[in-house]
Amino acid sequence: MNSTDFRMPARRLVAAAAAAALTAGPAALAGAGPAHATEGHGTASAAVLRTGLDVSLLNKTVHAPLTVSLNEVRAPRSARKTALTASLDGVDGGKPFSVLRAEAADARATVNGDRAEASATLAEARLHVPGLPLLSVVELEAVSSKAVCEAGRSPHASTTLPASVTVLGERVALSSGGPTHVEVSGVGEVRLDLSRTGTTSTTAAATALRLEVSVDPLKLNVAEVDGTLTLAEAACEAPAAPVAREEAADVQPQGARAERAAPTGADLAATGGDSTTPYVAGGAIALLAAGGGAVALARRNRTD
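Below the sequence we write its predicted structure tokens.
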């Protein structure tokens, strides 16, 4: 009877000490979870043709914007359409007219792993604006642009241009020295900006050919066409570089080395211990003390 009365408190003492030691450790470790880095996926885009034109009709009493694009894609897609038509009220009775016709018109944009890439290619192309159904604004053999962005490497942008193009019916040699101006009496003028490229630490952009158009054809039911035409553009942004984080493994010395390498309380932080070490040590002491007390009480009970 008495032995039962003494043994129960002893067991409760051991259980309480163990609970205190076990709850202290997890509470200290609650905010020490592993860290994860978020990675950007990168972007890529390309277009064979983009227009931003303002068409003035009926002696400039009506303005009709012409904003169209051909093969405008964003990763991970591709397009190979070779013809683009549009329609405007007041031009040719509102019937669709051809903006661009080409033998090849290809735009690609992909993001794969740590690499983003975009490209646009146009070959044997003829570009028209409203009011000039028979005269091309520009005719060219081939243009292309490419942008490559890879994690951890410098982005790259490039363009390819022919030696010459035909602008408003006139053959014009292309020069990298600056913009090229072409003016045709009774029709209008075109300014050509060649091979625009640019890069930053993570992005790249390339435009093969950009035309600033101002056309005023006579007696064609179109007062004026102003705006820009962009041919073969590509752009990309590199994916974020992967961040590798490794947690150092705790290697505990064994045997005689453990005695020589045992750190003092003052050197605990410098030797690899963390804030949970005192809790673990305290729990162990509490368990030993509780066990010793239980044994002593049991022996005294047998003596009585």
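Confidence is low (pLDDT under 50) at residues 1-39, 256-262, 265-271.
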